[in-house]
Design brief:
This protein has about 450 residues and is of the alpha+beta class. The protein is built from 11 helices and 22 strands. It has a 7-stranded antiparallel sheet with strand order 1-3-2-22-21-20-19, sandwiched between helices.
Length: about 450
């Protein structure tokens, strides 16, 4: 049963007409629309339509994960990655192994946090202080369970940069850069010699040149495999056209890159998934991530799935062998402590990438309301994209530029938004709009009518 309720009678509310106009769009003939908006100054429900219906959230689910991380770990929390030497250090020589002890920091060598000094620079400077090294390079990967790919992720997503699996040590956003050369429309693109780090992989490029001027290449792969298959299209007549895949073995790539930087060509390395206690170790260097509030802002503004999964894994209280399931349980626990309605809630990951996730507008509104009373209120709100100005909303909702801060969530047939609006009286409104199973041929008209609806809500 569809329910619609307003603070005023529907006939007197311009928002009601805007809602009807949106729902009657041809693109929603077979789709579902849910909306809820609440004035936080007086508690009035401005609009409520299907707010208890469980729907695919896509990336607005990141609001649950980032809110839980801020409130559980603290806004100033930092991931610590340690370089340690085991054995004796005499005369500047390490007579033992060098250990890398990762903490699940997603920002190491990440393009989103590249400064003047990279993580690789810091590690190189720390280890080059020593005149010699006689052992192995060992990466302790026991923080996560050996297989940390969220259940429910689909084959079409996992091989692409946005579907990169989180690993205890994340490196270059766990991505693999591929450069392609294309010719005439319809011909197959070729892998360029500019492409690095694909030695040992069976790369099958079936991408074709297209008259469309956009990247529509798709990669199919999985963690710990040596096969990478690519299909789809890229623009015709391109040289060194960059497309990005998820890296099947990013921790191995880290070891290779560090060895190369240090000139340790003869040094063996290994990745330990089983926990081994190291009693005789000395810390050589500690790499600190940016503060959590900065990571959360980057996560929400740019909708970075890998960052969201890393934050979910950080919510697993286990000391070793953390899992996405453990992190999801941490999110549920946070929502329970905040007394947020979890009816209809199904979480398979931290990012919203799985199409098996389900969230209601009711849950999202209660989260947005609770975060206005939280210690990390400002950090949470400042992580949201600003309409027409920043992040994933940079090119959208221009008429709401000074009035809307929100998280977007899109995937095939899904277009969702949740966040805060400012009305004409200066009151703050928590809102959530979820559109599922719409016809993407009508995207432009649906976006236009959605913007009209949100604009009317700010007039209430």
């Amino acid at each position: 049963i569809t329910t619609i309720s307003f603070a005023q009678k529907p006939a007197d509310t311009p928002g009601w007409l805007a809602l009807q106009k949106l729902e009657q769009d041809a693109g929603l003939l077979n789709g579902t629309l849910a909306v809820k908006a609440v004035n936080l100054s007086n508690g009035d429900v401005i609009i409520d339509h299907n707010s208890q219906r469980a729907m695919v959230p896509a990336s607005i689910q990141k609001l649950l994960t980032t809110a839980a991380a801020l409130e559980t770990l603290g806004a100033n929390y930092q991931f610590e990655t340690k370089l340690m030497a085991e054995g004796d250090i005499e005369g500047g020589v390490i007579y033992g192994d060098v250990y890398v002890m990762p903490s699940g920091d997603p920002t190491i060598q990440s393009r989103y946090f590249m400064g003047e000094t990279s993580s690789l620079d810091v590690m190189e400077n720390a280890l080059k202080k020593f005149e010699g090294f006689e052992g192995k390079l060992v990466l302790d990967a026991s923080l996560y369970a050996p297989h940390a790919t969220p259940r429910g992720w689909i084959w079409e997503d996992m091989g692409n940069y946005f579907g990169a699996t989180p690993t205890p040590l994340m490196w270059n956003d766990n991505t693999l850069e591929m450069y392609l050369n294309s010719g005439q429309v319809g011909t197959r693109a070729m892998l360029s010699s500019k492409t690095k780090n694909v030695e040992g992989f069976d790369v099958d490029i079936q991408v074709k040149a297209s008259s469309e001027n956009r990247d529509n290449a798709w990669f199919f792969s999985a963690p710990n495999t040596d096969k990478i298959y690519a299909t789809g299209t890229i623009p015709a007549h391109q040289t060194n056209y960059l497309v990005k895949a998820s890296h099947p073995i990013p921790m191995q790539q880290f070891c290779i890159d560090l060895k190369q930087r240090l000139g340790w060509s003869e040094t063996e390395f290994r990745i330990d998934h089983d926990y081994i206690k190291h009693p005789n170790v000395e810390t050589v260097e500690t790499l600190l991530s940016p503060p959590l509030y900065s990571i959360v802002r980057m996560t929400n503004e740019n909708s970075i799935n890998l960052y969201a999964e890393a934050l979910a894994l950080a919510l697993d209280p286990a000391e070793r062998f953390r899992s996405i399931e453990g992190g999801v349980e941490g999110i549920h626990q946070f929502l329970k402590e905040k007394r947020i309605n979890q009816k209809g809630l199904v979480l398979k990951d931290g990012s919203g990438l799985s199409p098996l996730n389900r969230v209601t507008c009711e849950t999202m509104i209660e989260l947005l309301m609770q975060m206005q009373r939280a210690d990390t209120k400002l950090e949470f709100e400042n992580s949201l994209a600003v309409a027409g100005k920043s992040g994933t909303l940079r090119g959208s909702f221009g008429s709401l530029t000074a009035k809307m801060k929100a998280k977007s969530g899109t995937m095939a047939g899904v277009r969702n938004y949740a966040g805060y609006l400012a009305n004409t009286n200066g009151d703050k409104i928590a809102f959530c709009v979820m559109i599922n199973d719409y016809d993407e041929k009508h995207t432009s008209t649906i976006k236009q009518k959605l913007e009209e609806l949100l604009l009317e809500i700010t007039q209430e």
